Amino acid sequence: MSKKILVIGGSAAGPKAAAKARRIDENAEIIIVQKDKDLSMASCGYPYYVGGFFDDRNMLISSSTGVVRNPAYYMNAKKITAYTETEAVSINRAEKLFPAKNSSAGKHWICLTTP
Ligand SMILES: Cc1cc2nc3c(=O)[nH]c(=O)nc-3n(C[C@H](O)[C@H](O)[C@H](O)COP(=O)(O)OP(=O)(O)OC[C@H]3O[C@@H](n4cnc5c(N)ncnc54)[C@H](O)[C@@H]3O)c2cc1C
After folding, report:
1. Which pTM was predicted?
2. CATH number for position 28
3. Which of 44, 47, 55, 65 is labelled catalytic?
């Protein structure tokens, strides 16, 4: 049975951890849960965007080849499932469940995090 790996947070550290996990285990089921709308946001570039050095906001969330790092990118490039605008609200370690709240759909759903 393949491992299930849950990563909470999808800004800088989360996707990095998920990508590293994928390199270590090509069969694991890897899930990123990200509260914000964007994944892999280059916060360090914000001042340049706000300061008008560039006006394409997608540059803050794009790969070096210009591909926007959205959930489809993570699935296609790394076989990682990414849920955006979804907040982990608690972790039930005993039952290996965790409820998460999707801000746009406004509903809670449950992911099994481990076999
Ligand atoms: C304007 C600015 C300029 C910067 N410049 C530099 C720089 O030049 N050099 C440098 O090294 N660093 C810089 N930084 C800092 C760098 O961006 C941070 O160190 C980095 O973003 C930290 O990444 P992180 O993933 O650890 O945390 P965060 O970026 O804080 O990401 C955490 C993510 O987890 C999500 N999250 C939190 N709780 C939950 C939950 N319960 N469920 C789901 N998701 C959740 C949050 O929404 C967030 O997206 C800058 C930051 C800013 C804001």
Report:
1. 0.90
2. 3.50.50.60
3. 44
The structural domain count of the chain equals: 1
102 lines ligand 1 (CB under 6 A): no
Domain span at residue 69? 8-84
pLDDT per residue as tens digits for the range 13-66:
999 999 999 999 999 999 999 999 999 999 999 999 999 999 999 999 999 899
Residue 102, domain member (yes or no)? no
Task: Please indicate whether residue 111 is annotated as part of the active site.
Answer: no
Is 85 close to ligand 1, i.e. is its CB under 6 Å away? no
Total residues belonging to the chain: 115
Q: CA 23, 75, 28, 94: dihedral to nearest 10 degrees?
A: 130
